[in-house]
Design a protein that fits this description.
Radius of gyration: 30 Å
Number of strands: 43
Strand content: 25-35%
Distance between the termini: 52 Å
Low-confidence stretches: 1-18
Structural class: alpha/beta
Mean pLDDT: 93
Bound molecules: zinc ion
Shape: globular
Number of helices: 17
Helix content: 10-25%
């Protein structure tokens, strides 16, 4: 089975590489597929809110069966989600998910676009979403995407008519698309865009419905389908060796950080789309019915179509290069047409096809993956014509680096030419990093000042190679990204982008430092060299009231890639305080305040992200009882590290090793997020956990998810406790302490309403909504316009100890350094221990 899957991927890789930098090496049947696409002049744009919302069956169908230019506009990059494969969260997760979307589009043949909207977290209603996003700015981005892409057809993933039934981002994406459909053609709106694009009126707007939106298959069968089209998305493509749904599953399997790896499927399968705007096609199996998608669509296009349709009809699979003269002729005719939109798109496709059918190999690879402003870089150039066609290499080089070599070399069949380039990088060359992260945005929006960058999935790279070739009397300029390639013994040949980075970067190991008392802490700063032999000083920046042992310390690093750690000793103020610290590197009169995050996975190209380097420092007056905490890791969270910051010693508990005596040594036991969801064996240890409480321990359970219709986890507590899908998503929503006299909010720290200020992303989720009378609800909270829920924090005495269940989002608040959350957590671990002396149970 594994061999088979690798084989499938192998086929697909040749046409649509997983990694953007890996050059495409299509077979002649894949080239034929591209020629069919070349002869289709129509486009469809799919619109939703997040990475993974897109229906890849529909995108693959439009791109590979209809052969339309197909795009996916995901309003956000998915920063707010969780990561199942590594440590990236928030903006770094957005970078990873952007690349996963690009990998998915490489497989299904679509193109990828975004808006400036940020995935700030869950919202229950589109009204809330559109308040946090800047509605007009996101709407203008949807209009911009439509004007730029010029789709004939737009398909929404979600229903704009059902606010409140799904994530607010989802409905908002459909509502904005519904509005933008009419606005994009209005030249009085978003005039600043008209410098770059023209108004555009799409022809049809659809909603990609399914039984899911109707509640059941039965209800959907009975639904009125007079406004619906349906297409078979299980069609088989012999030229690709794959069924459409196989391509779709391989595409959505790229969303690995969301745990979307899945089996491929085949066979006939229906997708329904409901017409919302525009005219109903007469042929209900053809989404483009009545729209001219032939070359005649553009003035002067018919003659081009005559040539290219003949190439398609008589395609030579054994020697596709014999079609080169026709492709060159069509290219020349295309240059005389006036429709700039199609001219640009189809010229690019023709250029790619000319390279592909002649087996042209054009590559500039750097000898080093990184260089720096003011530094040197050496490149190897490879030029090879693998066809019998006549070609001349006129020039090659890297225009951005002012390096162009003029030549006049005849490229004979299969005769390889190698050249070397040695280049000085300008002092003011820009670093390569995601454009949407270069300036601080708001909670709901990225800040992007350059209109032309808006919507682009990645920052366009400056360092590109250009090859000018004379083919059949016509000069072509082929542009390729400059890459770095290496042989890795355990992986084979690896391509990665060539990057310009600062000579060094500095980062804090911990992004949040909690000072639970007045004691100083050692703060290590890691400096990484991106150049050989660097020598400089590191300055430690901090706020008033804090003290550091020495503000500036010097460092020397000999080898590129090496790191050095410089330690500073930071003393907090006497009073409670929150502020930020940052490191500044000073080398030869220049300063660098960036840290480098590298995202490296097999399914996406390596990403280098430069972020402002800083850490939050928090001085708390926090009291606690007990020291040794046992922690059962669930789906993964950073709560243990956070507890260590305030002085606890945290021991990870192996679930299988839990027995009747193994927990006794802990002052409290904490169960990590979703532990009951991901650790089936935890059920079998429940008795020991409850016995531990009975004997006087404190057991703190963090949130577990309740299934939509199945498990409510009624048996995880000693008394009845039913989980629900209740959540409070507004992190600023008011919190009322309803059990004011309970020890949990009084000992050892007094918890007040102000301790719920400064929370991030949400209050909590999956709160219980039914519980036995033994439980005391401590807090009451609600989102605007909803009924209050009291299930966020429940405590029940059991035997001599306390059982505590909390859906509060400690896993988000503690790593973000939220003071009140720390105090409340310390109280959960300490409650009921007022009379216990503070003698540690584990010595030493
Ligand atoms: Zn979504």
């Amino acid at each position: 089975m594994r061999v088979f899957l690798v084989f499938l991927l192998g086929i697909l890789l040749t046409n649509q590489p997983m990694k953007a930098q890996t050059p495409s090496k299509p077979s002649s049947s894949e080239i034929y597929h591209s020629i069919q696409k070349l002869n289709f002049l129509g486009s469809a744009l799919y619109i939703a809110a997040h990475p993974d919302d897109e229906n890849t069956r529909m995108i693959a169908y439009l791109s590979n069966n209809t052969k339309a230019r197909t795009g996916y506009l995901s309003l956000t990059r998915g920063d707010g989600g969780q990561n199942l494969i590594g440590p990236e969260l928030r903006e770094l997760l957005g970078v990873l998910r952007t690349q996963e979307l690009l990998a998915a589009r490489h497989v299904d043949g679509g193109e990828q676009f975004f808006s400036r909207a940020n995935d700030f977290g869950y919202s229950k209603h589109p009204d809330e979403t559109l308040k946090i996003w800047n509605k007009d700015a996101v709407l203008s981005d949807v209009v911009w995407a439509i004007r730029k892409f010029q789709p004939d057809i737009i398909i929404n993933r979600f229903d704009h008519r059902s606010p409140g039934t799904t994530h607010g981002h989802h409905t908002a994406s459909a509502m904005l698309s519904f509005e933008a459909f009419d606005l994009a053609n209005n030249s009085n709106l978003y005039k600043e865009q008209l410098k770059y694009v023209e108004p555009w009126q799409p022809k049809r707007l659809f909603f990609n419905t399914s039984w899911w939106f109707y509640g059941s298959q039965e209800k959907f069968e009975k639904a009125d389908k007079s406004k619906m089209l349906n297409v078979d998305v299980g069609v088989f493509y012999p030229s690709l060796g794959l069924s459409n749904n196989e391509i779709a599953s391989i595409a959505s399997s790229q969303h690995l950080c969301q745990g979307f790896g899945r089996l491929t499927t085949r066979g006939s399968e229906n997708e329904y789309i409901e017409l919302l705007k525009g005219d109903m096609p007469t042929d209900k199996s053809n989404i483009f019915d009545g729209i001219d998608t032939s070359w005649s669509r553009i003035k002067g296009g018919k003659a081009i179509g005559d040539i290219l349709n003949k190439v398609e009809d008589n395609f030579n699979f054994e020697n596709p290069a014999i079609h080169l003269p026709q492709l060159v002729e069509a290219f020349n005719l295309l240059q005389n047409t006036k429709n700039e939109h199609w001219k640009t798109l189809k010229s690019k496709e023709l250029e790619n096809l000319i390279v592909e059918i002649s087996g042209l190999y054009l590559e500039v690879s750097s000898k080093d993956p990184i260089s720096n402003p003011g530094g040197k870089a050496d490149f190897v150039v490879e030029v090879l014509n693998r066809s019998s066609a006549d070609m001349n290499l006129v020039s090659f080089g890297i225009p951005f680096l002012n390096s162009i070599e003029n030549t006049n070399i005849v490229l004979k069949e299969n005769e390889k030419h190698n050249f070397e380039l040695s280049v000085q990088i300008a002092d003011d060359a820009k670093y390569t990093s995601p454009y949407w992260l270069s300036e601080k945005g708001t909670l709901g929006m990225y800040k992007v000042n350059n209109q032309e960058l808006i919507g682009k999935p990645e920052t366009p790279r400056d360092v590109n190679a250009e090859f000018v070739l004379d083919i059949n009397g016509t000069k072509f300029t082929f542009t390729k990204p400059v890459i770095y390639r290496s042989a890795q013994p355990d992986k084979g040949e690896i391509y990665q982008p060539f990057e310009i980075l600062p000579v060094a970067s500095a980062s804090f190991k911990d992004k949040v430092l909690i000072f639970a008392d007045g004691q100083p802490k050692t703060v290590p700063v890691t400096i990484k060299a991106h150049k050989n032999n660097i020598k400089g000083e590191l300055q430690f920046c901090f706020s008033d009231g804090w003290k550091v042992d020495q503000e500036t310390k010097s460092f020397t690093i000999e080898k590129k890639g090496d790191v050095q750690t410089v330690n500073f000793v930071l003393t907090p103020p006497d009073h409670e305080d929150e502020s930020y610290i940052s490191p500044i590197i000073k080398i030869n009169g220049k300063t660098i305040s960036k840290e480098l995050a590298t995202i490296d996975y097999d399914h996406v190209p390596l990403q280098s992200v430069l972020l402002h380097s800083e850490a939050k420092v928090v001085r708390l007056n926090i009291e606690k009882v007990g020291e040794h905490i046992g922690y059962i890791v669930g789906a993964g969270d950073a709560v243990p590290e956070s507890l260590e910051q305030i002085g606890y010693t945290v021991h990870t508990i192996d679930v299988n090793a839990i027995n009747s005596s193994s927990l006794k040594k802990y002052d409290a036991v904490v169960v990590g997020i979703r532990a009951y969801n991901v650790l089936p064996e935890l059920r079998f240890k429940q008795k020991y956990l409850l016995d531990y409480v009975k004997d006087g321990g404190n057991l703190v359970i963090q949130y577990n998810t309740a299934g939509r219709r199945d498990r409510a986890y009624e048996d995880i507590a000693p008394f009845k406790l039913k989980l629900s899908r209740d959540r409070v998503t507004d992190e600023n929503s008011p919190v009322e302490i309803i059990a004011k006299n309970h020890a949990l909010v009084n000992f050892p720290n007094k918890i007040e309403e102000k301790d719920f200020e400064g929370w991030v992303q949400e209050r909590g989720l999956y709160f219980p909504n039914e519980w036995a009378k033994e439980f005391t609800p401590i807090l009451s909270m609600k989102d605007q316009g909803e009924n209050a829920t009291k299930g966020s924090l429940l405590v029940a005495p059991y035997g001599k100890g306390n059982y505590i269940y909390s859906g509060l989002s400690f896993f988000r608040e503690l790593p973000a350094g939220v003071s009140g959350a720390y105090k409340l957590f310390a109280n959960m671990l300490s409650t009921g221990k007022e009379k216990v002396d503070n003698e540690p149970k584990i010595k030493g």
